[in-house]
Design a protein that fits this description.
The protein is 49% helix and 15% strand. It is globular and about 60 Å long. The chain is α/β, with parallel strands linked by helices and 448 residues long. Helix 1 runs antiparallel to helix 2, helix 2 runs parallel beside helix 6 and helix 6 packs across helix 18.
Length: 448
């Protein structure tokens, strides 16, 4: 049995009932075969793969909070600190009912390689709660965040672990979390959280960063094929910060976004999501209604209830911006039948392993999420730099630095593929490039 197979089997035995975590472990490790074959002896001696799939620590805690009617509730909080070989743990906090340990571990594992690709000194971590902020008042959100931070503050710090926002955790939640942290510690350590408001240490371009970065990475992919974004049509899912930022940048670069989606279905806007329509996405998000149909009601375009656009709408580029595993094997088959040439994964692990394999075998170019959506954490890293300097960079400086980081991520992938004599496989290349830096640091620091 190969070293990779041994580690996958052992990890599955240790982590029963964690499908999301095992999905990403299998996807990443199986693509590392060229790197493992080249240095198997030293990797085995240092237990690199065994340590790489085992988090440094998994913190689970209860979060009691009181609603506006005086009724108490108890949720579960998580922080998975996966790997800090190249820097302090870094990764978002997600507040969603479907949050569990498997989801947290998959996200933290992916984050380790994603952060490595940015070139910034950041390790991998992730956290959150099964709390649902939808429909809650500001006072309820604040009470929950204060309770959540009462435990989390013990495990974080600017040189230890720096959380950020994620799904269900925006500027409001980060503000409350930082207020609680400051109260508990008595220290104005604004580098302990990123995604903050501009008035207390936030960075310009942070809300747009994931969508902008995903578009900049796609620019490099298309340029490698002698193409550009101009004139191309795009299917996006979601309508939150990520889809909003991507729509802004795609429109600016001459592309046309024709779909968005929500829990209720998807809209098809043949005229394109542009101008005031993009601005309206902010209103939709702030409304708390979580309905994409509001867009079609306002602008008079098609609304398709209960479905995603995947395989139902023909476009040049597919860009999932919502949830993990939203593209399944039946969607992949429909995409191939439609002749969709490129899948640019923006959300974390939006494609099941079965669907990913089918798409790649049938000639669809897949740009993987750990590279595509690294722009969000990259600008979080730049926010950390600004906090350390006690400076606020201009939007132009942040944006140009972000663009350079995404360009360099693509170069790292191409270089890794070239090193192992491989074809232009972005999925394997991203894993190989991200793995190399983390593995080298772990070997240099000894078995610990």
């Amino acid at each position: 049995m190969s070293y990779i197979s041994e580690v996958i089997e052992a990890t599955a035995r240790k982590n029963p009932g964690e499908p999301e975590f095992m999905q990403t472990v299998k996807e990443v490790l199986t693509s590392l075969e060229p790197a493992v074959r080249a240095k198997e002896k030293v990797l085995r001696e240092n237990c690199i793969l065994e340590r790489m799939v085992e988090p440094d620590r998994q913190i689970i805690f209860r979060v009691p909070w009181q609603d506006d009617k005086g009724v108490w509730h108890v949720n579960r909080g998580f922080r998975v600190q996966f790997n800090n070989a190249i820097g302090p743990y870094k990764g978002g906090l997600r507040f969603q009912p479907n949050v569990n340990l498997s989801v947290m571990k998959f996200l933290a594992f992916e984050q380790t390689f994603k952060n490595s690709l940015t070139g910034l000194p950041m390790g991998g971590g992730k956290g959150g709660s099964d709390f649902d902020p939808a429909g809650k008042s500001d006072a309820e959100i604040m009470r929950f965040c204060y309770s959540f931070m009462t435990e989390l503050y013990r495990h974080i710090g600017p040189s230890v672990d720096v959380p950020a926002g994620d799904m269900g955790v925006g500027g409001r939640e980060i503000g409350y979390l930082y207020g609680a942290y400051k109260k508990l510690t008595g220290v104005y350590d604004n580098g302990v959280l990123t995604g903050k408001g501009l008035s207390f240490g936030g960075s310009l371009i942070r809300p747009e960063a994931t969508g902008f970065g995903a578009t900049y990475f796609l620019e490099e992919v298309l340029a490698h094929r002698g193409e550009s974004i101009e004139g191309k049509t795009f299917c996006l899912s979601g309508f939150g910060n990520v889809a909003w930022g991507a729509s802004l940048k795609i429109s600016e670069l001459g592309g046309k976004v024709i779909t968005l989606s929500g829990p209720d279905g998807y809209i098809l806007d043949e005229d394109g999501v542009k101008g005031e329509k993009i601005a309206y996405l902010l209103e939709m998000r702030e409304s708390g209604r979580n309905r994409v149909q509001d867009y079609s009601d306002k602008f008079g375009c098609t609304f398709v209830p209960g479905k995603k656009p995947w395989g139902n709408v023909k476009a040049d580029i597919y860009m999932p911006c919502a949830m993990q595993n939203e593209i399944r094997i039946e969607d992949a088959k429909a995409m191939v039948a439609l002749g969709v040439p490129v899948l640019n994964e923006v959300s974390n692990m939006p494609t099941t392993n079965e669907a990913l394999e089918y798409l790649q075998k049938n000639g669809v170019l897949v740009a993987p999420s750990k590279a595509v959506n690294a722009g969000g954490v990259a600008v979080s890293g730049l926010e950390m730099s600004q906090n350390s300097e006690r400076m606020l960079w201009s939007a132009e400086k942040v944006d140009s630095t972000l663009r350079g980081i995404m360009k360099n991520i693509h170069k790292q992938i191409v270089d890794a593929l070239s090193e192992y004599g491989m074809d232009y496989d972005l999925v394997a290349g991203a894993n190989l490039a991200g793995f190399k830096k983390v593995a080298d640091a772990m070997i240099a620091q000894g078995v610990n």
